[in-house]
């Protein structure tokens, strides 16, 4: 008996030692175990035993391709599914992917039995090495969910596990005031927005029905929390508005997804998830339980640009700074983000819809040449300014070493 107690205690100590330390800094950037972190991953985890089309470890492929974040959880939450949730969390930990444990309605208990189940769940996972955050009730404002159970659940989770933030994802609906009321019960917020459909923009609740509505919603959610909490955006792979037979199956192309992703980053997103990697699969992918076709064609090439290990990852995880201020002339619809990292100035520039324009970006220090990352070209820098052509929904990433 004494030996059993000692073993159990040793296991508990080992699990606690492996638990991630997560912090949200004053500029809303994340650190995990002291390292800058930008959440980049999938909203909806694949099977725990996921295999690639050629039979290799699917989770290892996703991690190697830049995924560092995964929404994991059963919907609706039920005890019978907790084994699969555990297996997915274990799979994530094995390859170094962070898990956002999605609690769904369990996070809004309405009676003592539900409170006990929530307590049991938090105690089970709070020291799991994959755990980075929790996700509470989905789209509560849109669902007109009562506030009291959500607040009670938030308070319980924070008391049981003050070390991991709680994220609330909203629908692209409701007023800022309505969303702000619910945002009191989270540590970070966000919204799902899926503009690509036939016709375009059916998912948007704003007048803008084009790709650039992603930036509008990013800035809107920042306003909801008064810039005091991180914002995570959920972008699309596939969703109900593109699911046959009622709707036409269409997914964002690489160019569309690249634009939406960069625009969200430029406008202040602190993480991005992509929803629907398990919906409407071709014959090959259906047998594997994951849209490997979209991964290889779109997400993996995109994550190669911005994911962990890329040149840009230290840029998008760097603290906000006023060291560089870029002014755009010749266009009013080009959004920019500039940061100085490692002795270089990086400028991310994304143009909304409209006409092709030639714009002037000024504010760099000095003259010379700037590389345009991922385009295999350079542009001259004259007296701190770049001139370049921007097509609708195009993205240019400049790197100037001074």
Walkthrough of the structure:
Helix content is 31%, strand content 24%. The strands form four sheets. Strands 4-5-6-7-8-9-10-11 form an eight-stranded parallel barrel, surrounded by four helices. The chain has a five-stranded antiparallel β-sheet with strand order 13-14-19-16-17. It has a three-stranded antiparallel β-sheet with strand order 1-2-3, with no helix packed on it. The termini are far apart. By secondary structure, it is of the alpha/beta class. It folds into two domains: 16-316, Glycosidases (TIM Barrel, Alpha-Beta Barrel); 327-401, Sandwich (Immunoglobulin-like), CATH 2.60.40. The radius of gyration is 22 Å and the shape is globular. A hairpin with a 2-residue loop joins strand 2 (30-32) and strand 3. Helix 4 packs parallel to helix 5. The chain contains eleven helices and 19 strands. Residues 1-17 have low confidence and may be disordered.
CATH H level, superfamily name of the largest domain:
Glycosidases
* Total strand segments: 19
Secondary structure: helix percent: 25-40%
Order of helices and strands: HEEEEHEHEHEHEHEHEHEHHHEEEEEEEE
Q: Class by helix and strand content?
A: alpha/beta
Shape: globular
